Amino acid sequence: MRNGANEGLSPGVPDEGRNLAGPARNAGPTVAVLLTATILLGAISGWFLSSREQASEPVVAMIAPDERPEALNTLSGDMQLKARADSRQCSYPLGFVSISTPGNPAGGTVSVRTSRYTSPKFHVSEVPQRIAIPNPLPQTGGIDTFSVDGDAKGLIVSLFPTAWMEPVNGSKTISVRWRPGPPCK
């Protein structure tokens, strides 16, 4: 015997009134899982971006041991004496920056400064020049201030990444990362 509601329909053709998907499902658990996954992804992304932000300070390159004798000539007089006396090169490891004013052939005069050292004044031009800087955090490395004092329009300081540091009103300061020096033997 046939159901009267399905009379007139061909076999295999669904009735519009029938629910073929089965019983209605509760969407609550699915929404909860999707919401939890979104929150976790957001938290992980925030952590990742904040950890990259902390490491965003430019890094000061360190001088190779074979370049040290030439680099000492760019230090201030008293620092030259101390660094030359450090035969093991662990008390005064040296970093360096290259400075230039591309597009400004007249250049300017600047000195560089960290929390523990101020360089002599240098005339800067379009030709890059390397300047040695004693590492202010030789045992541990870390973050320190780096300043350029003087007057030089369009000054580029080679850090990683490169910093445009045009001194405004005579000074420009940024935070930089120093690597720890070699262990003393």
How would you describe this protein?
Helices cover 22% and strands 25% of the residues. It folds into two domains: 23-56, no CATH class; 61-178, Lipoxygenase-1 (Sandwich). The protein is an alpha+beta fold. The mean pLDDT is 82. Strand 3 (108-113) and strand 4 (122-124) form a beta hairpin. The strands form two sheets. Strands 1, 2, 5, 7 and 8 form a five-stranded antiparallel β-sheet that branches. The chain contains three helices and nine strands.
**Approximately how much helix is present in the residues?**
10-25%
Rg over CA atoms: 33 Å
- Biggest beta-sheet profile: 5 strands, antiparallel
Helix-strand pattern: HEHHEEEEEEEE
The count of β-strands is 9
Name of the CATH class of the largest domain: Mainly Beta
Regions with pLDDT < 50 over 5+ consecutive residues? none
Number of domains: 2
Please state the overall shape, judged from the principal axes of the Cα atoms: elongated
Main structural class: alpha+beta
Approximate strand percentage: 25-35%
CATH fold descriptor of the largest domain: Lipoxygenase-1
Distance between the termini: 100 Å
CATH architecture of the largest domain: Sandwich
Mean pLDDT across all amino acids: 82
Our count of helices gives 3
Characteristic terms for this protein:
elongated; four-stranded antiparallel β-sheet; 185 residues; single chain; five-stranded antiparallel β-sheet; Lipoxygenase-1; 2 domains; alpha+beta
